[in-house]
Design goal:
The protein contains 15 helices and 13 strands. By secondary structure, it is α/β, with parallel strands linked by helices. The protein has one domain: TIM Barrel, CATH 3.20.20.80. The strands form 3 sheets. It has an 8-stranded parallel β-barrel, surrounded by 7 helices. A two-stranded antiparallel sheet has the order 10-11. The relative contact order is 0.17.
Length: 514
């Protein structure tokens, strides 16, 4: 039988883009993270085999992961010098938008002292984006802080929010004329979980009270910034970038169902309810789903990506549909990608993600765009350089950019979408509407695994199900052995790892964030 095309069209002005953040790609930073990474590099290298030794690709990454230099960002991808080249590559691919973050520590390196050269740099950056026909999506806080602000206590003190608001006010007076989409805070739940609950990121605090206080202050910061921006111009569309996952019970037991609701609430709703009235849309970062048995997360054992995260890109649809049904705000996918140095799964990931968005659009979700994480290989926080998320591979010795095969395929899809605006995307066959995963009785293996301490950190994913048809010669994601490391969903769970030197006893946690 001949495959039929999907009849769902992406909106005419749908934003097809890629995402980056300043610390991860620009290079030459001096902020609280750059100081921390230099102090912790040897410790992170020493712990690497314990953290990642059970990954299937450990023999391939071992030498890099054991090298302390891997954990020092340095020049990163040298994007600060090569951004014009990167924008030209993005334009050639057919991208129409670019997400980036403005580094606060560049703009205000000392309290109240504005760096004129840094402001000129970001003005030139935005001018180059405009010249390349790329819609800018600017992030104001993406995990890094000026050293002076961190020394004051950072976002742990409500009174410090005024400094962040002052920075945004100044910045938007300078660059606001060329910006519409603004993201105030990237992944607040991931930030507080890693920095104040697990204590694995600076400032290495382990305190439940501090965790919720900082989360509350971040919500307050978003609301204050949104008011300032809306007072300047209603042109600004303001949001928080929320890491989101679809969480569901793995069986019909009341405990599984209740736990799934609680996890979903703290994953998404606890924070979003604090900021939704001062938001014009919701920025969605999606990497996985969570299946719950009893009171633990236990996910299917499938081939992990290079970081050990289970790959289930099709559940992007469910995450989008849930957020839309709860908040009725437009959604913009601002991160979605896979760590895949050998480019085995990225084409499949992109295919399934695009199909998921088509289904969500068909079900009435108002979707503004999709931004792949990431355009470039980059510095992945406490994991350093060895995870490779880029559509373009980066040689960290020469900084040469090389498109991966998946990038070339994605470019063909985008070019066809542009040329045939009224036609479906040719490489993507139609699929029936996806049903929500149904609760199934837990198997003995699942029950046994879910009772172990490791299972709390099992890779978030989804139950086995038939997958939609895929383009020819698209690599599949076959079953494999357990033992994969999980990315933090921002849901607070007991950490496990040897201590990292810090102000308080803390443990490293294998979380990425983009």
């Amino acid at each position: 039988m001949a495959k039929q095309q999907s009849t769902v069209q992406f909106p005419k002005h749908f934003l097809w883009g890629a995402a980056t953040s300043a610390h991860q790609v620009e290079g030459g930073m001096h902020n609280q993270w750059s100081e921390w990474e230099k102090a912790q590099a040897k410790t992170l290298a020493a712990q690497s085999q314990y953290q990642y030794g059970d990954l299937p690709n450990w023999p391939h990454i071992a030498s890099a992961a054991k090298d302390p230099n891997n954990y020092i960002s340095g020049k990163a991808a040298n994007h600060a010098e090569l951004y014009a080249q990167d924008f030209a590559l993005a334009k050639k691919m057919g991208l129409t938008s670019w997400r980036f973050s403005v580094e606060w520590s560049r703009i205000e390196p000392e309290e109240g002292a504005w760096n004129v050269e840094a402001i000129k740099y970001y003005k030139a950056y935005l001018a180059a984006l405009t010249d390349a026909g790329l819609e800018p999506v600017v992030t104001l806080f993406h995990f890094t802080l000026p050293v002076w602000f961190a020394a004051r206590g950072g976002f742990a003190k409500r009174d410090n929010v005024k400094y962040f608001v002052r920075f945004v006010d100044k910045l938007m007076d300078e660059i606001g004329a060329t910006v519409r989409y603004v993201i105030t805070i990237n992944e607040p739940c991931v930030y507080v979980t890693e920095s104040y609950y697990n204590g694995t990121w600076p400032p290495n605090v382990r305190s439940k009270w501090q965790t919720y206080r900082v989360l509350s202050n971040l919500a307050y910061a978003h609301n204050q910034v949104a008011k300032v921006l809306h007072a300047k111009s209603r042109r600004f569309k303001v949001a928080v970038a929320k890491n989101s996952a679809y969480t569901y019970p793995g069986d019909d037991a009341w405990l599984s169902r209740a736990t799934a609701r609680v996890v979903q609430f703290f994953q998404d709703d606890y924070f979003l309810r604090k900021v939704v009235r001062q938001s014009d849309y919701i920025a969605v970062n999606y990497y996985f789903s969570n299946r719950i048995y009893g009171y633990r997360i236990h996910n299917p054992e499938t081939t992990p990506n290079d970081l050990g995260w289970t790959m289930q890109p099709d559940h992007l649809e469910l995450a989008l549909e849930r957020l839309w049904s709860c908040y009725k705000l437009p959604l913009l996918v601002t991160e979605n990608g896979v760590a895949d140095e050998r480019d085995q799964f990225r084409k499949q990931w992109l295919t399934q993600s695009i199909l998921a968005m088509q289904r969500a659009l068909g079900n009435g979700v108002e979707l503004l765009g999709y931004m792949h994480w990431s355009f470039l290989d980059n510095f992945e926080w406490d994991k350093g350089f060895w995870p490779r998320f880029g559509l373009f591979a980066v040689d960290y010795k020469t900084y040469k950019r090389t498109p991966r095969p998946s990038a070339l395929w994605f470019a063909r899809v985008l070019q066809q979408q542009k040329k045939q605006a009224e036609q479906p995307i040719e490489p993507l066959p139609s699929v029936p509407a996806r049903k929500k995963p149904s609760a199934k009785p837990a198997t003995a293996q699942a029950q046994a695994t879910s009772s172990s301490p490791r299972s709390v950190r099992s890779t978030p994913a989804v139950p086995p199900k038939p997958t939609p048809p895929t383009p020819p010669q698209t690599p599949q994601m076959p079953p494999s052995t357990p033992g994969s490391a999980a990315r933090s969903s921002g849901v607070i769970t007991p950490p496990r790892r040897p201590a990292v030197a810090s102000r308080s006893r803390s443990r490293s946690h294998n979380n990425r964030e983009e």
